[in-house]
Structures are given as C-alpha cells and as structure tokens.
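Researcher: Please generate the 3D structure of the following complex. Treat every line as part of one assembly.
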Amino acid sequence: MTTPPETQSEEDRKARASRWFAELRDRICAAFEAIEDELAGVNAERFAELAPGRFQRTAWERGGTEGDTDSDSRGGGVMAVLRGRVFEKVGVNISTVSGRFSPDFAKQIPGAEEDPSYWASGISLVAHLRSPLVPAVHMNTRHIVTAKAWFGGGSDLNPMYPDEADTADFHAAFKVACDRHDPDYYPRFKAWCDDYFYIKHRGEARGVGGIFFDYLDSGDWEADFAFTRDVGEAFLEVYPTLVRRHMTEPWTEDQRRHQLVKRGRYTEFNLLYDRGTKFGLMTGGNPEAILMSLPPEAAWP
Amino acid sequence: MTTPPETQSEEDRKARASRWFAELRDRICAAFEAIEDELAGVNAERFAELAPGRFQRTAWERGGTEGDTDSDSRGGGVMAVLRGRVFEKVGVNISTVSGRFSPDFAKQIPGAEEDPSYWASGISLVAHLRSPLVPAVHMNTRHIVTAKAWFGGGSDLNPMYPDEADTADFHAAFKVACDRHDPDYYPRFKAWCDDYFYIKHRGEARGVGGIFFDYLDSGDWEADFAFTRDVGEAFLEVYPTLVRRHMTEPWTEDQRRHQLVKRGRYTEFNLLYDRGTKFGLMTGGNPEAILMSLPPEAAWP
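Model: Done. Output below.
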C-alpha cells in the first residue's frame, strides 16, 4: 500500500480486488467453522455422530469448453465446501477468470460489444442449513473488467419461516454499509434485489430480500471497491448473528419438509433465472463450483 | 368415424388429436394403478403403511399471464398425479391451449413468424419411482397448429442403474413403432433423442435415450397422427413391463442416495434446457402442471 491509489494500474486494481475476495473467503470460513464448534444442546445431540464441520478446499483450472470460444481462456478458482452439523452444505467459492465472450454472450455485457475480452473475479457463497429455523443465505461480490470495469454483488436472506427481527437486522446491516457511501444505494439496491430474486412463474419472492447491485462504476474505483468491501463486512457481521440466534432451537419433521419445498423453489430460481449461474455455465466455468449453490436435498412433493 | 378422413376439417383433426391424448391418459392411469395394486413382497412390506396409489385429477384453466400477450388465450388441462408405493410421484398431464405467442417467442416457432396464433394439445408424463432399481421415464406427444401443423413427442428412459436388457427392450419397442411408418424414423429420432437429452454442462446424457421427434409434418396428417398414436401405444406396452421386472427387488440406502443425485441431474436438465418447460412457462401454462416433472426428492450432496 505504498503506491498512492491514483497511480495504480488496472493490473494493481485487479490484484487488489482478487486478494480481497480471498481474504473475505478466509474470514467467512473461519467464522462458520467457529459456529460449527459452538453448537450445543438438543441439536448437537441430534447430530452427535457428526464432527463439527470443516471447509474442504478444491482448486480448479479452466479448460476451454463449448461455451468458450477462446482458446486462451485462463484462470480458475477454489471451491470451499463445508458439510457440517449447523451448515448442512455451504459453498464459498472464489474465482478469477479471463478470456473472450462468445459473440452472442458479448452482446449482453457492457463494454464487450466491440472487444469481447473480459476479466472477472469474485466470491460467491450459498449456505443451506440443517435447521429449517435458520435462514439460508446467498452473498456474492465481484469485479468485472471489459472495455469498462465495474463491481457487482449483494446478499439476500432466504428464511423458511420469515422472522421479523431477522429480516430487520439483515436489512439494517446492509443499509448501514450502503449509507456510508451513498444515501441512494440502499433504496436502489434493495428494490433491485426484490426485483431480481423474484420467482416469476410462481409469482413469489425467493426470500425476504437484501441488496443487489451490478454495473457499479461511479467513476471513483477506490470508492466502489470500498463499498464492495463494506458489503462483505456487513454480511460477515450480521449473518453469523442470525445463525447463532436460531441454531439451538428444536424443529419438527413438518418444518423440515417445508424447508425442502422452499429449497425446491430456490433451485427453480437458480436454474431458470440466475444470471451468475448462466454466466458461469456460458463462460466455461466449473459446473461443480457453479452448481454448488444447489441445496443438499430438495423436494417437489 | 363416418366422415372419410380426407373431408375432415382442421377442427375435426384437432378434436381427434385431443381426444386421443385423453384416451391415452386414461389407459396409462389404469395401467399404473394396476401396478400399484400388484406390488407384493419386501417392497410391499417396506411401504405397508401406504395404500396402493390412485391418480388424483385436477383441472386447471388458463388465465392471461405476463408471458402471454393475448387477452383471448384459452384452454386448460387436467393434471393427474399419483403418489404411491411403486410410483413415488407420477404426473400424467393433458392440456389443450390456444392463443397468440409473444413476438419474441413467435420467432422461434415454425409458422408463427407472420401470424402468432397457435393451438396446442398434448399429453406429458414423467414418472419418478420409489425404487432406484426401476427406471424413471418421460413420455410426451403433442399436436401443434400455427400457420403450419405438426406432431412432436417421444419418450426416454432414465435408469439410475442402466440395465442392458431394459435399454434394449425400450428401444426395441419404439423401433417397432417407428419401422411400421418409415424406416428412417427410428435412426433419426433415436439420434435426436440422444442429442436433445444431453446435459451439456455436465458432459453427460440424461438417461439411456429412446426417441424424440418434432415438427413432424409428412404431408399426410392421418399417417403422422397414426405414428404419434403408435408412439403412445409402444410406451404403454414396454414401460409397465420394465416396472414389473424390477419393482420387487430390494434396494439399499446407498442406491437410494445415488437415485437422488441422478434426480438432481434430471432437475438441472428440465430447468436449464427443456423446451417443453420453457414453452409452458412462456405461454402462461400452469406452473404446477409444468413443474410436475420435477422429482419428489432430489439431492446435490
């Protein structure tokens, strides 16, 4: 950090963004493993045969695939997956990839119309909990560079049984992070989240919202990067609180069944509508890493 | 049947096709209920608390929805669902709908480029079995009328543990049906099936194939309708044989887990690639009926 920001090159900025995503991943993994250790009471007894979960990391590298028209596509990522006694399955993936978009896909991406080259780095997290009383969650932040450069991301809460205090606390945490940067961010990004995470064919919201932003390029890269970091920090502060609040509560088989049905709806959203899923599959990403978001069990009874 | 075919109007032909789909549905439902009654041995004991399954029918009517730009869209269908002791969940749906395609969707449909009006009728079946040793299956036949008119459909077998004799018998039944009409049909429609039911991002086939055909308009409506009926008859002959062959075999928890994972792949295919699912959701069909194809339980462990 001895180079003043204004003299940093694009390569420096890319490296800083990627490094931050990896650091955030490390801190989230540590926080979730601490929760796995802490579980006590009836639910610790219920899963007495399970050791506290630990993340397993698997690195992958990108090979050229059908969706990727460029033979010099590069990069890869690391999947970190924990299957534990609080977190039934949580994936925290980071990836940094570059290449050239296929002509069709390039049309949909800002700055790629003329030169389809891209660089993309990000962190993506989805947590599916054993308890139907602990909300599932998604969080993602990313930096994408074409002829333009922008940040995107957000986080949304997916309770099986919405709880007013949880919803309020989750939104409050992201509002604080947003307000620190721009008073317009929270209302805009909250509305965008509600709009984005809507399961059109069911006529229902996927969860209780949060924030969603994309194409964020205020003209001040440092400010946008700082905001993106604050979104990660807000997630790390609020979500473990919600998990601890509910993780020791007992649940019934009926509640579990309801959870599996809600997870079915989550699956429908991810496969039918999610842009991150499409982006990943279209750019020759690792399907195991991309589909890590799918629930360990789901039901369409 | 007193009117000679060559003097029949398009309305007569539509009515005959729709009537056939409903008759086939009735015969399939009866055949599957007979299998539910027949189950004996360890698997009947395993599900002793369950009565032999019976189809529940639910009629639905189409209302205008977002995907449907025409206020005079009409029609509806009947979902028939059985949740039993052999069939964990099987849906046999018929529907007859008409309306006007949205401009974007019309571009993809033969004969709809200039006049987006359509009429469509069909039967669609997906069976998910309790036993991981009994193959899941899909079958669909349909008649679609725009400025053009054609038949489409097919059937593919989705075993969790492919069995050479099952695969051979399944293909043989459809080959006989095809060969009765045109020696080119079976090789063409088998290849089309392999191509269509391919899970691109996984680099794997959904199942062991069968036949798939679309836009079938040989110029002889009677012959095409007769072929389409024979596809339904072939299904009705061969699939119950395969179910009976395996339904009394005991299975293990490991085999069940493998089944749930294969069902996850099935779900990925249906939501990411299946044209019938997209067609249904885009034309304001009933999402409950369209997504009836999704498995009662699935896993992404």
